[in-house]
Amino acid sequence: MSTTSTPVPRGILKKAAAAAPPPANATPPPREQQITLHQAQQLQRRLEEEIKPAVPIETFERLSQLPRVRRPSLSAARPSPEDAREFLNAVQDFLPREYSDLIEERNCLGSCGYALCPRPRRRYEGEWKVLKTGIAKTADLNMWCSDECARRALYIKVQLDNPSYIRKNGQMVIKLELKEEQAPIPQKPKDKVEKLVKKREQLEIDKKKQTTQDAAALAAERGDVGRLARQVEVTIRERSNVAPAKAPEPEQQDANMHLFIEGHKMTFGIDKDSNEDSDDDYLPATIRM
Amino acid sequence: MEEEGSSSMHARETSRLWRAWRTVHEMVQDRGYELSDEEVRVPLEQFKREFADDDGSISRAKMQFSARPSEAMIKKFTPPPMPGNPNPPSEAGTIWVEFCPEKSSIGIGVMKKFVQHCSANNFKAGILITAAPLSPQARKVMTVTQHYTQIECFMEEDLLVNITHHELVPKHIVLSREEKTALLKRYRLKETQLPRILSKDPIARYLGLKRGQVVKIVRTSETAGRYASYRLCV
Ligand SMILES: [Zn+2]
């Protein structure tokens, strides 16, 4: 401020205007420009990837009509390959919320929430339903035709919730697969190879479990308690203390409270044992001792 | 026994639908559409005669009507003439109201059908009254088409009582664009300086307020007499 004490501001403006253009318009260094451009493009690409456009309504309409191929030999456990491919390809772009929307959309049409299932959903009445395994909300049960379909749909949902990515046509997409169906007679794997495969699968599953547990432990250590805090049963009861409130009373030993000065009891002229005695027996402490 | 149960259920549903029917008529009339008092104040008996099926239950599919905007409403929602557009058309047009017979939740298909019906018949506004909530994607259909047909959805249970008839709800009057400009000029305000009302507020939904419209709220006070305040819909 102090430097601009000149009464004519025109001179300053002129200088600035004259000074600014040359470096900007003079031969720009092509290398730097290229780098800047490259960085801008990368940023643009990253933004595009991060803000995923919403899934078009037509996709929901299409997927809520699945399965397209309906034959008696096909079922949710054995969908036609075309339907399975269409479903997986479309759902790869879904957010977990959009997948829930798809289930709701199918339910509106009365279909089972699992997109590859040709059967209608359940229609239990009432709010709750007693099952062999416990009590469940009918709203949750009515989303599916059967518990198997609920599990199949959940299997997809888990993969969307915790995505692992694979490279496909140069792009990273969520790895999705259908739940493996148990064969009608899943008894004893015949040869050793099959056994080994089973074991290895189990190992994979254990490993996955361990990873999530480790992640959870780490999160807990870092103070991310919100998601991990175990639910504790808390019962709030009113205190049943109904006795009338009492005014505080000095306890017996504090009967000489009035003799304390800043926590120190005066002993001059008073005997410790003279509490019960009346004033008549008053004797100086020195004499008593 | 069972007969009796179902008939009392019919009676309850009939009464609910009748109340929703009356509220939506009052709402459309309050917004400035042409409806006569006879059309609005339909007695229960007449309602039953008109819409009951043979088994005594009310058919929602029959419950539909349209209403034309009144002269005053057309004038109020005509934008001021501009040099390039000396005779701008009014934003007010015929409204279409329908009760959705669907009992489970409303999906994309039902919503699309309603929107297509409205645009095919050149309705400027459409109100769909449902017994069940909309699915998230159906709600999206509603907002996507908002620029050519104003689609609104109400649930039957939201219309069982007319909230504006409650004594504690003050009178709300929508301002026209010119009135809004005059108000801002008079008090030297920018519109963002006005207090606000959310477009999802029950009164704003009742009046069909759009974002940017200003509503005048007239209260009566024992100490101050009548006084007005203004809110911008956001
Ligand atoms: Zn199913």
TrEMBL record, chain A:
Q: Which EC numbers characterise this protein's activity in its record?
A: 3.1.3.16
One Pfam family from the UniProt entry? RPAP2_Rtr1
InterPro entries with a match to the protein in the record:
Rtr1/RPAP2, Rtr1/RPAP2_dom, Rtr1/RPAP2_sf
The record lists the organism as: Lasiosphaeris hirsuta
Q: Where is the composition biased (Low complexity)?
A: 33-44
Q: What class of enzyme is it?
A: hydrolase
Q: What does this protein do?
A: Putative RNA polymerase II subunit B1 C-terminal domain (CTD) phosphatase involved in RNA polymerase II transcription regulation.
Q: What is its main location?
A: nucleus
Annotated protein name in UniProt: RNA polymerase II subunit B1 CTD phosphatase RPAP2 homolog
Report the domain of life of the source organism: Eukaryota
UniProtKB/TrEMBL annotation, chain B:
The subcellular localization recorded is:
Nucleus
Instruction: Please report the stretch or stretches of sequence annotated as the RNA polymerase subunit H/Rpb5 C-terminal domain.
Output: 161-233
**RNA polymerase Rpb5 N-terminal domain: residues covered:** 12-117
**GO MF:** DNA binding; DNA-directed RNA polymerase activity
The terms describing its cellular component in GO are: RNA polymerase I complex; RNA polymerase II, core complex; RNA polymerase III complex
Q: Which Pfam families match?
A: RNA_pol_Rpb5_C, RNA_pol_Rpb5_N
Family label: Belongs to the archaeal Rpo5/eukaryotic RPB5 RNA polymerase subunit family.
- Tell me which PANTHER family the record gives: DNA-DIRECTED RNA POLYMERASES I, II, AND III SUBUNIT RPABC1
Q: Could you identify this protein by its name? A: DNA-directed RNA polymerases I, II, and III subunit RPABC1
Tell me what organism the protein belongs to.
Lasiosphaeris hirsuta
Output the lineage of the source organism. Answer: Eukaryota, Fungi, Dikarya, Ascomycota, Pezizomycotina
